[in-house]
Here is the input.
Amino acid sequence: MKRQLILWISALAFSTLFYKQDLGINMFIFAIIAVVTVFFARKEVFKRTDMRIATLIYLMTSLFVFTNHSALAIFMSFITFIVFAGTISGTKNAIYIQGISGLYQSLLGALHYYMSPKKERKAATPQKKRDYGFILLCVLLVTGLPIIFASLYSQINPIFEKWIAVIDLSFINISWLLMTGMGYVLLNNITAPASLQMLTDADSALRQDMTEVSISETQEPVLHKEQLLGSLVIGVLNALILFFLVVDIWYVTNTPLRHAPELSKTVHEGVGALIASIVIAITLIIILFRGSLNFYKNSHRLRILTYIWIILNIILVLVTFFKNYIYITDFGLTYKRIGVLIYLTLCVAGLITTYLKVAYRKNIYYLIRFNARIVFMVIVLMSSFSWSREITRYNLSQVARPDLNYLETMGRNHIDLLYAFAKAYPEKFSYTSMENIERRHTSHLENLENETWQSATLQGIKYKNKP
Here is the structure.
């Protein structure tokens, strides 16, 4: 009974938070409600470290919806909810397995539980003293069927129709009730013991460490040839990348990269080629260290050359970081330039995890699993910023000639900053631009005025309280 009471209270809170509301602080409040509901229903799962981490990340991204109100924050709040739901039943699974399990749990958790064999249900939860499902069914039938039959009878007899018409049921909001029911189903699903056991067990069974093998005398000549070939290939590539780094660093330090087309070519086109070269490099390393060569006693030279190649690739990424920094300093921030920073960060992460794979004799599953978590965490951190505001703030304050046309094409989160700048420097804008900015700013103010407490955002609160 206690669980059902908590679920219905949480469901009512769900409909109160989201019925005919925009997304704002309601996402964070619901995240707290979801966590508390799961805690009371399945307290034991919070003893696990991975569950506590998933909970913290979900709460963080939901808070970002209030503080930033960016599309990325809203998207990541939904994604982290799914991961949170998947972590309830999945133990130490890969992030993508948790995502699949979370989607299943959110949509079919309760159905899975009630359709599971009785012995599994007894093992998951103590035997109930009362059949609350039967009680709920009785309530629905006793209240629902008379309404249906009364409606039918009113069509048969005009006097009965007049009597029924006297009863005013306009106070019943069907949409709100459906929203409450949806909240109940969602919370009931994530609190029900359910998991894709076959999938989670298969993922847990996959080893990340390579199994050490004994190398026979017949294998040694083959492995000797492999490590010799690998050493020659990696050695030549080391020499090539070293020569390229010398030329590239000389080019950056001696050539005034101050023209937009030149910088665009060396950064954006260069990043594509850089990512391709790093993917090929990591693939080659995976092929070389795919099996017995990891345990060959004379592979020390190949390992050293591989580590050098990884370090040189990281230096190459850092040089590209510097080029992008020059581009941003001279011409301002854009979504594309921020994307370049993300790609380069992930490249460094991929190279470091490749080093760990070789140094600690890990397999390719380790690379996939570890890098998937890195990508997930990078996107979570990116959602902590309102990038439209950060781009506008930086470009208007740090760039001598900001691209105002670009700033006008972005979303509405930054329109107050652009409006304030346009009012201060009207000579920088055309009449059409000024008119467009004023119209968008007025629309933005109207939206803030109509903002309810459920959909409140930090930006809206600050703007309303602005003197």
Observations:
- Residues 219-362 form one domain.
- The chain has a mean pLDDT of 81.
- The radius of gyration is 30 Å.
- Residues 219-254 form the longest helix (36 residues).
